[in-house]
Amino acid sequence: xxxxxxxxxxxxxxxxxxxxxxxxxxxxxxxxxxxxxxxxxxxxxxxxxxxxxxxxxxxxxxxxxxxxxxxxxxxxxxxxxxxxxxxxxxxxxxxxxxxxxxxxxxxxxxxxxxxxxxxxxxxxxxxxxxxxxxxxxxxxxxxxxxxxxxxxxxxxxxxxxxxxxxxxxxxxxxxxxxxxxxxxxxxxxxxxxxxxxxxxxxxxxxxxxxxxxxxxxxxxxxxxxxxxxxxxxxxxxxxxxxxxxxxxxxxxxxxx
Amino acid sequence: xxxxxxxxxxxxxxxxxxxxxxxxxxxxxxxxxxxxxxxxxxxxxxxxxxxxxxxxxxxxxxxxxxxxxxxxxxxxxxxxxxxxxxxxxxxxxxxxxxxxxxxxxxxxxxxxxxxxxxxxxxxxxxxxxxxxxxxxxxxxxxxxxxxxxxxxxxxxxxxxxxxxxxxxxxxxxxxxxxxxxxxxxxxxxxxxxxxxxxxxxxxxxxxxxxxxxxxxxxxxxxxxxxxxxxxxxxxxxxxxxxxxxxxxxxxxxxxxxxxxxxxxxxxxxxxxxxxxxxxxxxxxxxxxxxxxxxxx
Amino acid sequence: xxxxxxxxxxxxxxxxxxxxxxxxxxxxxxxxxxxxxxxxxxxxxxxxxxxxxxxxxxxxxxxxxxxxxxxxxxxxxxxxxxxxxxxxxxxxxxxxxxxxxxxxxxxxxxxxxxxxxxxxxxxxxxxxxxxxxxxxxxxxxxxxxxxxxxxxxxxxxxxxxxxxxxxxxxxxxxxxxxxxxxxxxxxxxxxxxxxxxxxxxxxxxxxxxxxxxxxxxxxxxxxxxxxxxxxxxxxxxxxxxxxxxxxxxxxxxxxxxxxxxxxxxxxxxxxxxxxxxxxxxxxxxxxxxxxxxxxxxxxxxxxxxxxxxxxxxxxxxxxxxxxxxxxxxxxxxxxxxx
Lengths: 256, 296, 338
Hints:
The structure holds three protein chains of three kinds. By secondary structure, chain B is mainly alpha-helical. Chain B has helices spanning about 25-30, 30-55, 65-70, 70-105, 110-120, 125-135, 140-150, 160-180, 190-195, 200-230, 235-240, 245-255, 265-290, and strands at about 55, 60.
């Protein structure tokens, strides 16, 4: 069939386009040397060994994990009760919330950074150059993912009926929330957390402009390593990529 | 929320006192940290940018805008940003369209594989993406050396406008496929069958039915790709170490450069960037409204 | 002289046979129904006639011309789909004009033809509406108009009424039949609904598991089912196995015995009955069901439950459960089926 062949070719080209840069980087990171040949010679893990013994890399990775996980914890503590309250007590607010959470999404991070750098460089909240300003920004990045996912979960259960039923059975509102509503949110919340995690790890703009060398995250470290061997940087890229892959896998597992 | 309830049949209706919103004030307290964070880290910076864009040492004025618009250097930045965003969005859109259309016609296993690949590669953006391309097609990249040895190219200049378009297109494709693929589900296969029985060739079906029906999704995807490209900073910055003149690169260098900082100028540039985004979105909305009658 | 001639049509998907050994011929202007349960291959067969699905074997001729391998665009066939398949981005008028525009007819001629067909399907005033603004019945008529306006040689209708509610279905049934007869259009109609098939068709092809198992006029199919499948599918037949037939009626049969519920008469004790019918069969009323002008009784005789239809004349005549009665069965209306 001609049509079938055409569609398969298009999909094959698409796969090729998307995977070639990744595969090339992988091969590069696994080779001692790669000149003008189709495949490199001397495959080895030496670049990875070198990378994973580099204290600067481990420190940067640790800082990235700390600031991302810290943000996600804070975001969970703030956003979960807020979404619940909106759905249970102020359903009229949902429209407004949906518009508000899109602002951080619609405004380029560079633009937000301009304001942040000037507001928090001095004055009462002097947090520029500290991880705290990143936590604040990352909160707004994680917000749309988490709000939408939680809102979808809540919309799919009848919050009011469940709460009324729990109340009639003698539960107080906080207990009813923790024991009845929260278990229904767990899966969607986990999926959105992993998705947000991979987005946060990918941030370079905020990290570079707001914290820079004062708090060197993985992305900033990678950028600062640009003058070293390409094999070494590709080992960083692949380590980072494999980690986000793991997060994507977790997202997919929890979205089922 | 309606607070009145229907009287039960057979019983006299008892008027229900409408509950006051104030009753829920403890619940409202839970919203406080949420709004505080949103205001501190999203709304406040926006307001700062808006206010300070019209602020100069001489007080309130549009001087910043005037300086930008009369500067060939800034005009070039706008020019580059626009050109690169439009081209990478258009090329990315066309590839995603062809890909998404074919994706519906291949086996489920292959389709799931492609969806996971697009999900995976959508993580490859910014600095890592730039580095991957430097390794592949940089001056001493594996593919560059190979193609040069085969005599297929003389030189590919990755650190140029075309190089930036290439990299941007790469991160547009996964996004485009993920956004467009669901839209193709709205196409009924019977439409194509009906069109062919009425005498339409395949291209005529796409020209008169398929693409017009997909138009809102295509337009919406284009806007998202365009916004994604014009606000992007990391990949171009990492590729050229800030030497390629884009609006975002200019804005960042005005607030974080080592030499002189001009935050108000950065604010004015930011406002112009957002105005461009607004304009594109408004045109999109207008086009949607024009063709909205059938869209449902 | 037949207008459409199909011989030896067959289609497989992998190992599954969709249909095979299909032969039929249609006269010009004939309304033929492909009737069968879902999954019997009737819709795929229809799509094959239109050229939307390739066939593995066989030959289709229309007016002497072999169209077996012709593209759908070249067959001169109009089709109405179950989902209507109206183009959502076009108004009623644009949908109908689509085929004419592709033929590059002059604008005035397109306008005239579109106006004519809109009047024919009684959609005047809806020209500028979009499909989502119309009711199911109206969409159906737009789909019909769009197929008719290009003046096809054959009209194919793929369960066009199945998505509509009962009342609209009935009136559309009449409209379609009326238009078809006025235009003298050769029509193939696909349905799983026996009533639709019986009321609309000149001829019915009953399909089962990819084969045409019986063809004939509506009266023929209804009163003389050729197989057990047809008898069951046409509904409410009493089907007696050979042992039941011999126990109940002392008849030796090799296949099943099919008896229509209205071929059985009920006589209460003491009521006089015509002598020329078979011997009376003692039976007991078990329950009844009211079907409007007909009452359907479940009656038990010799441990076998039969369905018997009686005209619903007077409420006082209703027979209560447990009533002992005599049954008379018209031998001429019994059919042996295999």
